[in-house]
Amino acid sequence: MIHLPSIQKIKGRLGQVLNSPTPxxxxxxxxxxxxxxxxxxxxxxxxxxxxxxxxxxxxxAIGIVLILMIICTMDIPQMMLGSQEKKxxxxxxxxxxxxxxxxxxxxxxxxxxxxxxxxxxxxLQLIEWGFKQYSLGNSVVPPVGELLMDNGExxxxxxxxxxxxxxxxxxxxxxxDNPKLGLPTSNGMMLAFNQKTGQPTAVLLxxxxxxDVRTAVAGAIAAKHLAPTSI
Length: 231
Known about the structure:
The chain is elongated and about 115 Å long. Strand 4 and strand 5 form a beta hairpin. The relative contact order is 0.08. With about 230 residues, it is α+β, with helices and mostly antiparallel strands. It has helices at about 5-20, 20-45, 55-75, 75-95, 110-115, 120-135, 210-225, and strands at about 105, 140, 145-150, 150-160, 165-175, 185-195, 200-205.
């Protein structure tokens, strides 16, 4: 038994089909193609001596007229534009449905807590591994960007290790009159991005702390490999 909502749905769909020019265009176009095929068949029969040669030409002519009517009726540019619009809508729908979480914002206090949980030896090994990748040519480190001002300067550094999950942009500033304002002379942050998609994943508001840690660990690595064994 068909429920009333189903009948209403069918009637609505049928109305859409009947009010649309597409079914009629398909029907007339199909008739035109069929007449062309029938005309060709009659011509072949005529060439074989079975008669109907003249009727075949007339049948083909009528079929071609119907096909030309369809071609003239169809709005080809609009159809192409509609196809492009549909493709754009589909791509936009996929893009909007793809998760795009906001980057994590980690402040200096949180970074200090995390650093306290990492053994110093592990920090040394990680940064030592980074230096090794740089020496092997497995990193991309463009020249440092510099922004000079009368009362300070900003350095922008960026880089990545090939095949890693992220690339990083570091912004470090030095404003040497800041102590007069009760502010530190140096400040900065680091921005982490997904290396495959470019999506920002983290903002590290370290205020220069990670630069200080890096410098200290780099000094320890240099001493490990370059310091004399005895003094």
